[in-house]
Amino acid sequence: MTQSLPYDLLPPSLEDFEALAGQAWDGLPDGFRKMCGRVEIFVADFADGETLDALGMEDAFELTGVYIGVDLARKSVIDPSPEPDRVFLFRRPILDEWAERGDIPLGELVAHVLVHEIGHHFGLSDEDMHRIEDEG
C-alpha cells in the first residue's frame, strides 16, 4: 500500500533555518562555544553579489555559508577588528545540497555548514577541515 504525501508542503523558511542554526549552536560543546567569543550567526537566502565577487564565485548556489571577520590566528588586541565576526548560512544552497544528497537530515547539514564556517573563525582552511573530516 502506498502512503499518500501531503501536497501542501513548503520548504523551510528563513525563520526555520534560524531555528535550525540555533539548535546547532546550542548543540555544540560549551567550551567550543566559549572559544567562539561573540561570533554572530545570520541566515539569508543567498550570498550577496559583493560576497560572491570577493570569493571569485559566480553561482550563488555554490556557497552554502561564509565566515566574515578576522580569524583568531590573526586577531590582535592592539588592532581590534571594527566589525564583529559573522557566520552566514545560505538557505537556498543548503536546501539544494540537502535535496541532492538525500542522505542526511537537514538539521545535520545546517550544523555541518555552521561548524565549517566556525572553523574558518579559528583560522582553519577548507583543506584543513577536509583533512580533519577524512581522518575522523
TrEMBL record:
Lineage top rank: taxon: Bacteria
Pfam families: Zincin_1
InterPro entries: Zincin_1, Zincin_1_sf
Coiled-coil intervals: none
Organism, scientific name: Maricaulis virginensis
Database matches in CDD domains: MMP_ACEL2062
A GO term for molecular function: kinase activity
Assigned keywords, A-Z: Kinase, Transferase
Protein name: Acetylglutamate kinase
